[in-house]
Amino acid sequence: MAEFAVNKLSKNRMPKVVVIGGGTGVSVLLNKLKTFDLDITAIIAVADDGGSSGKLRQITQSIPPGDIRNVICSLSTWPDKYIDILQYRFKEGNDILSGHPIGNLLISGLAEMEGNYTAAIEILSEMMDIQGRVLPSSEVPLTLCANFSDGTEIEGESIITSQGKNIERVHIKATNQNDVVTPGPGVCEAIADADVIVFGPGSLFTSILPNLLIEEVGQAVLKSEARKIYICNIMTQKGETESFTDADHVRALHEHLGQKFIDTVFVNNEKIPEEYVNLPSQDENLLQVKHDFKGLLEQVPSVISDRFLKLNEKGIYHDGEKIGKEINNYAFSHQRGIRMNF
């Protein structure tokens, strides 16, 4: 007989919320979630190979720091004027520093000093007094690979979406062939201990799925007793989710992990003004994601639709504060009274 312990959860403790993804959308959400009484862990993708992150991962032969930097900044309690220092990006014209944010260089330096990325993130997180934890989904540099509907395959996150083809599936591999793909320290434990797991918002194939395709991470998600929320993108993305409905997004998640696991989907039901469609400043966006309520209910038990839209001069975003309130309410209403650890 398997030994197990029954742990009664205190009604007074903060619900444990794990957010899995990468990119701007997750940072916007976390910036609002930190204002609630939640125990937050952010698990961040490490397959980015473009821009400053791509250059630094080549130089240091380690994971990219960009999304990690943004998430740490979003969870920090520092005044904006200090956060702006880490976010400052060197201007063009310097062959060595051009395009690199100060924070990326700081994280890379700390990782070299400490000998691993997790320790570097812990030091910077403590220094910036963040509300929560930030974990890389793996400390092994990963390469994202995509299989397209025409039978071709491309490697490298930064060029996958530039192919102008329909993605059928994605998979990951260790960038260095001698490495074994393993989860980052604490990742599977955080998932197993979560009350709520949130996926996104963010790029489906390049920010969310790369985390879940680490075998142990995907299995931990499937085994977790946590309530699982997917925040669907508001807009389609060029070379990634063109013509996708919200149900198509969820279907792709389920197909990649081999079974249905999402409990609730958050979808925006507000129409995008025409002047915000195909903005030059939002070159990844195409059209508003179509709502397929019937298709969603074939995939998930529940759907929460609302005006989760926030518009500004830069483009279209999720309303982080509104979604944060929904997740906070969801977390407290679904907080478990008893957990069994086998």
Can you describe this structure?
With 342 residues, the chain is an alpha/beta fold. The protein has helices at 24-33, 51-60, 66-75, 80-87, 102-114, 117-127, 157-160, 187-193, 204-212, 215-223, 246-257, 293-297, 320-333; strands at residues 5-8, 16-21, 39-44, 133-136, 142-148, 153-155, 167-174, 196-199, 227-231, 235-237, 264-268, 285-288, 302-306, 309-312, 315-318, 338-341. Strands 4-3-2-8-9-11-13 form a seven-stranded parallel sheet, with helices on both faces. Helix 5 packs across helix 6. Residues 1-10 and 336-342 have low confidence and may be disordered. This is Putative gluconeogenesis factor.
How far do the termini sit from each other? 10 Å
List SSEs in N-to-C order: EEHEHHHHHEEEHEHEHHEEHEEHEEEHE
Instruction: Please name the CATH architecture.
Output: 3-Layer(aba) Sandwich
Would you identify the regions where 5 or more consecutive residues have pLDDT less than 50?
1-10, 336-342
The best one-word shape is globular
The strand line-up of the biggest sheet is 4-3-2-8-9-11-13
Regarding CATH, which class?
Alpha Beta
Quick one: how many beta strands?
A: 16
How would a crystallographer describe the biggest sheet?
7 strands, parallel
> Quick check: average pLDDT?
90
In DSSP terms, counting alpha (H) and pi (I) runs of 4 or more, how many helices? 13
What's the number of structural domains?
1
Helix/sheet category: alpha/beta
CATH superfamily: CofD-like domains
Rg over CA atoms, rounded to whole Å, is 19 Å
The share of residues in extended strands comes to 15-25%
GO cellular component, one term: cytoplasm
Pfam families: CofD
Function: Required for morphogenesis under gluconeogenic growth conditions.
Keywords: Cytoplasm
